[in-house]
Design a protein that fits this description.
Layout lengths: L6 E5 L4 H12 L3 E6 L10 E4 L5 H7 L5 E4 L7 H12 L4 E3 L19 H15 L4 E6 L2 E2 H7 L4 E2 L4 E5 L6 E4 L1 H11 L9 E4 L3 E3 L1 H12 L5 E5 L1 H14 L4 H13 L22 H15 L1
Parallel strand pairs: 1-2, 1-4, 2-3, 4-5, 5-6, 6-11, 7-10, 9-13
Antiparallel strand pairs: 8-9, 10-12
Length: 301
């Protein structure tokens, strides 16, 4: 049975991923309702509904009549996405897209990392509801965020100081996707409800190793003056997990877990299945990657 999706609610629309998803949804002329904790400014074409994310009742009232709900929140509250999923199931929402946007959720070991606890809980929840025919779901697997990873330093590169922090030997090739491509792919899922039914979809802008990204960066900024360190990720992971257990939590506590995955082929590698064509994405070539690096470097000056 085919379904036409027109009315879409999105949570987390002011975030890095959510803002791109919202823009892509509006470009495709969906009727969009933004679920927001406060009355923030959003594009005029979107309807804004202020909701209490701690209340299934509030969420349920806000998403009544929606064909799809997209969660792009990254709250540390593991229960928040589960309440949204329950509200969607109660209201007969056809499609739910969870806030995954990372590595292959079906790959053994990925969702066992504590940093991915809320993603694991959300995946298990939508599968449970789908098994009882209460909703359908999609997850978007996009690897690491290419543009954000380079600009924020998460990818291990400091463009201004010419420093490179390499995860392991730096040779593991993994998917990287720009935020704009993630937004476009997520919105396009709703144009292909049957092809994306109850499964992860796999997209990428590039498949590259950290060393290849560093080489591209040197091609833009020059080879001279770089300080490069290669780091054993095992003790870094052990320290991060110990800090987490002891309640010593910082951004690096979670970043190291993801960086460990990116260095480990068993946890991160090029997709066996590729949904780029289905979801309207084209793979980037090296020159486009260099253009992105140049743009980020210029903005950082």
């Amino acid at each position: 049975m085919s379904h036409t999706i027109k009315n879409v609610a999105i949570a987390g629309a002011s975030g890095n991923v959510g803002a791109r998803v919202l823009s892509a949804l509006l470009d495709l002329e969906f009727n969009v309702t933004v679920l927001s904790r406060s009355s923030k400014p959003f594009p005029a074409a979107a309807r804004v509904n202020v909701v209490d994310f701690t209340s299934v009742k509030s969420l349920s009232a806000a998403i009544a009549g929606q064909d799809a709900v997209i969660d792009t929140t990254f709250s540390p509250d593991v229960e928040a996405p589960l309440r949204l999923i329950d509200a969607a199931a109660e209201n007969g929402v056809y499609r739910f897209i969870t806030s995954d946007f990372g590595l292959d959720p079906d790959l053994p070991g990925v969702h066992d990392m504590p940093v991915f606890a809320r993603k694991k809980a959300s995946y298990e929840a939508v599968k449970k509801h789908a098994a009882h025919h209460r909703l359908t779901y999609t997850l978007v697997a996009c690897g690491a965020f290419l543009d954000w990873g380079i600009s924020s330093g998460f990818a291990g590169l400091d463009l201004q100081e010419k420093k490179a922090f390499i995860f392991g030997d730096g040779n593991n090739v993994v998917p990287w996707t720009t935020l704009d491509d993630v937004g476009r792919a997520t919105a396009n899922v709703l144009l292909h409800p049957q092809e994306t039914l109850n499964r992860p979809v796999y997209v990428h802008s590039v498949f590259m190793s950290q060393n290849q990204i560093l080489s591209a960066t040197k091609g833009v900024l020059g080879n001279e003056g770089w300080e490069t360190t290669y780091n054993d990720m095992d003790p870094l992971l052990e320290n991060a997990l110990a800090d987490l257990k002891a309640g010593r939590i910082s951004a690096s506590t979670f970043e190291v877990q993801i960086q460990y995955c990116l260095a480990t082929r068993a946890l991160a590698h090029p997709w066996a299945r590729d949904d780029n064509s289905l979801l309207g994405l084209e793979e980037w070539n090296l020159e486009k990657v260099k253009w992105l690096i140049q743009t980020i470097a210029h903005k950082a000056v």
